Each structure stands twice: as structure tokens, then as C-alpha cells.
Amino acid sequence: MRLFTAVIFDDEIKDSLCGVMEKLRRLTDKGSFTLRENLHLTLNFIGETDKENLVMDAMKKAVSLADAKAFELTFAGFGRFRRSEGDICWIGVEKNGQLIRLQKELADCLTDVGFVLEDREYKPHLTLARRVKFKDKFNQKEFEAYVPRMTQRVSRISLMKSEHIKGKLTYTEIFYVDLQ
């Protein structure tokens, strides 16, 4: 089973993000846009495993160790990671100490039980699209001004399963831990 931990969004945030993606789509020649139901903020990518119980235990322990309480998360700005096969487009996440502390504690707890995670600094962002090729007149600063600030209350973290169902990438929440 392919797993990751995440913050999932409420319908209002998903609607706002879809509005941004629709405008972005009109400025591109091609790209693979994230499905509305798959929009999320990744905390830790775990990968293929059949040890979901270890992940669940690590999630509970991390929330306790971080003394994690519900918090507000704000999304703003637009960026892209340039790739030869097409860019990855994203919306930024404003600095949030609670998010960083929770993600790090979770990464440590997952590592302690044997999972090998990416060894790089956590830079939270919401992926809107991959393999994007822009039309000639794309102005990133102009587009960024269009992206609204969005805020969501985060009251739990989720364990997500990633799979292809009938040719469609599908993310399913299989477990969650409420924040204290």
C-alpha cells in the first residue's frame, strides 16, 4: 500500500484552489492538474508498506509529543519548480511553527519505527499541477497577484492511501488523529 501523511482540506479551500487551477489552466498549453478530491498538504511521504499500524502508532505518538493543538494555516503566493518535462506549480504555505513542529515530530516518530523518509528540509506547499508548459506570455508575478490568501483550521492529521482506481489516481483517508 502506498501511504503518506497529510492535512486534508475543507470544501471551501478546495473550491478556492479549483478556481486558481482553472485560471492557471487557461494560461497553459499542457499540464496534469490535481483533482479536486486529491488536494492536500503532504506532511510525510512514506511510500509502499504493509505496516500501516506502525504509521498509525507513530502519528498518535507524534501528536502527543508535539502537544499538537488545532491551528490556523494560511496559503498564499504562487511558485513553480522548473523541470525539463514541465513545471510543478504550487501555492505556498505561510510559515507556521506548529505545522513545522508537528511534521518534524511525525518524521522522527516514523524514522524511529524504521521508515526511511526523504532527507531534506520540509517546505510545505500545495501542488496544483505537474508537467505544466506555459503559453508564451505567462507572467508569474501577475498570476501570483490573482491567488487569494486562504486560511483553514487544521484539527487533525490524516493517513492517506494512494492508488489508481480505473485509471484514476485516488487518495483515500484511512486513518486520522485529532489534534488535542
What would you say this structure looks like, in words?
The structure is a single chain. With 180 residues, the protein is of the alpha+beta class. The protein has one domain (2-178): Cyclic Phosphodiesterase, Chain: A (Alpha-Beta Complex), CATH 3.90.1140. 29% of the residues lie in helices and 42% in strands. The chain is built from four helices and nine strands. A five-stranded antiparallel beta sheet has the order 2-6-5-4-7. Helix 2 (52-65) packs across helix 3. It is globular, with a radius of gyration of 17 Å.
- CATH-scheme architecture: Alpha-Beta Complex
Q: In what order do the strands lie side by side in the largest sheet?
A: 2-6-5-4-7
> How many strands appear in the DSSP assignment?
9
Helicity level: 25-40%
Which percent range describes the beta-strand content?
A: 35-45%
CATH superfamily: Cyclic phosphodiesterase
Distance between the termini: 28 Å
Number of domains: 1
Unreliable segments of 5+ consecutive residues:
none
Indicate the CATH class. Answer: Alpha Beta
Rg from alpha-carbon coordinates: 17 Å
Average pLDDT, rounded to a whole number, is 95
The helix count comes to 4
The outline comes out as: globular
Secondary-structure element order, N to C: EHEEHEEHEHEEE
Largest sheet properties: 5 strands, antiparallel
CATH topology: Cyclic Phosphodiesterase, Chain: A
